[in-house]
Structure formats: C-alpha cells, structure tokens
Amino acid sequence: MIESVVFSLLNGVLYGMLLFMLASGLTLIFGMMGVLNFAHASFYMLGAYCAYSISQVLGFWGALVIAPIIVGLLGALTERVGLRNVHKHGHVAELLFTFGLVYVIDELVILVWGQLPVDYRIPEALDFTLFSLYGSDFPAYRGFILFMAVAMFVAIYLLLVRTRVGMIIRASLSHPDMVGALGHNVPRIFTFVFAFGTGLAGLAGVMAGNYFITEPGMAFAMGPIVFVVVVLGGLGSLGGALVASLIIGLVTTFAVGMNYSIADMLASAGIAFGQDSVLGINLSRFGPMLPYLLMVLILIFRPRGLMGSRES
C-alpha cells in the first residue's frame, strides 16, 4: 500500500511537471499578449519531431538546445506573418487562425515524418536507475524532467519579475502606447513573447517525446488537457499553471491506480450496493475525465481560476 502511494505520488508529480512545461508557454502567451493559441500543442509536437531528427546527427544534448530554438523561430514567423495581420480583426480571427494552424502543422508532420511513430529514445547518459524504493526503480530521466521543469519555472519567474526585459514585456500588455512612446518596438516585443512561448512548447516536446511516444497524434492527445491546466490555474497566471498542473497530475495518477469502486467503499462502511450498477464501475476508469470535471467545477465556483486575477 505504501509502495503504491509513494510511486503514485512520484509519477503524479512527474506528469504534472510535464504538463507545466507545456502549459507555461501557453500561459505566457496569453498573459502577455491576450492570445489563446490553439496550435500550442502542435508546436510541442514539432519540438519532439525536430529533436528526433537532430538527435540522429548531434545526439540528445544537441537536440535539447537546437530544437526549441527552431520551434521558437517558427513561432516568431507565425506571429509576424499570420497573427499580426489577423490581430486587427479581433480574438475570433486569432482563434480561427491558430485552430487552422493545428491541421496545417499536423499534415506537414505526416508529410515529412510519416504516420507511424518514430524511434526517439531516451539518451544513454540518462538511461539508468536514479534510486530504488520498495523494490521498484525510479529512472534517472524522470528526475531530469523534474529538474528541467523546476529550472524552467524559476527562469521564467526571474525573467518576468526581476529583469528590465520582463518589466518592458509586462508593461507592453497593459500600456502598449506608453511603452511605444518610450522608444520600444511593441510589435517586436510581442513577436519575442510568442516565439519564447512556442520555444517553451518545443522544449516540452524534446523532454516528453521520448518519455511518451512521438507520433502524429501526440498534439491532439495533449492539447485539451493543457487548456484545462490554463483554465484551472487562471488565465495568464504562471503560478496558477504550476499548481493546476500538479493537481491534475496527482489526481489523474492516483485515480488510475485505484482498483476499487464507490460500491466497494460503501460496502466497507456497511452499506450494500450492487456491483452491476454505475457505482460498481472501477474508479480507475474515471481517471481521464477528472481533470475536465475539475475544470467545470472551477468555472462554476471560481471562474477566474485558482490564481487568476479578476478583470476590472
């Protein structure tokens, strides 16, 4: 029992931090630019595929540096050529543009890399056991993912809060005319923010592509859950995205590991209930829907999210 709880906790934190690595870029883009990028998970997929191709030549460590830069440059091109031109037509046009971009990227990935999963593997330098607990091994690569996620959070926080660049970025959202009057190129700042956010998605793809499976459906698998994280944590809140990611990771992991039903819990309390009813369904089967249930509840009782700010 203790072994199950400990490893469910570790795996839940790991899954939560992977979600944060992906959601942080989306949160940054929305918080700084007010753009809800539907194609964010597609840039995550591009990061994984670029890392696979680069790792064939330069290895994993070269891919870890180069792949996010490539994805960030593609993000900058997207903002400069596409989003900047549709921005004047309002948020609906931005949503439609990014929604269509999802299918464009998906078809390009299939065209270049094919429909089958690619053999993107964990690097040999991190393919060992970090520690053993209760007879089970915890791989070193999982520890590396946790380290990178924490380092990403600290770096983004320090960039936005402790540096002059972060001050200019935050001011460009709330007072773009004033920032422009001070001599700063506001459109260029927005391009940088979008490129940085998509680069973070690419970094998440580099880290998660070999932990999960790098295949054309990975964007559609992760896309919905990332928006759940952003809504649950609060639109534009980096700290909220971290807390929401951990909550979803832990709730999902513990739910999947449950081998009993509500009827079993009622029976242990002396209340008999038929196993052939809805309450007799194993709780692990409800695991994938719990994040969406949390999102519905947060929208009902706290629409601004856990750490989101109320609009004035």
Summarize the entry for a quick read.
This protein is mainly α and 312 residues long. Helix content is 71%, strand content 3%.
Describe the structure.
There is one protein chain. The protein has 312 residues and is mainly alpha-helical. The protein has eleven helices and two strands. α1 packs antiparallel against α7 and α2 runs antiparallel to α7. The model has no long low-confidence stretch (mean pLDDT 84).
- Shape-level CATH architecture: Orthogonal Bundle
What is the first-to-last residue Cα distance? 49 Å
Specify the overall morphology.
Answer: globular
Share in β-strands? under 5%
Any idea of the CATH topology? ABC transporter involved in vitamin B12 uptake, BtuC
The order of strands across the largest sheet is 1-2
Instruction: Outline the biggest β-sheet.
Output: 2 strands, antiparallel
Number of E-type strands: 2
Alpha plus pi helix count? 11
Task: Please describe the structure with a list of short key phrases separated by commas or semicolons.
312 residues; mainly alpha; two-stranded antiparallel ribbon; 11 helices; globular
What does the secondary structure layout of this molecule look like, with pairings?
Elements: H1 2-33, H2 40-86, H3 91-113, E1 129-133, E2 136-139, H4 140-162, H5 164-174, H6 176-181, H7 186-209, H8 218-233, H9 238-256, H10 262-268, H11 290-301
Helix pairs in contact: 1-4, 1-7, 1-8, 1-9, 2-3, 2-7, 2-8, 4-5, 8-9, 8-11
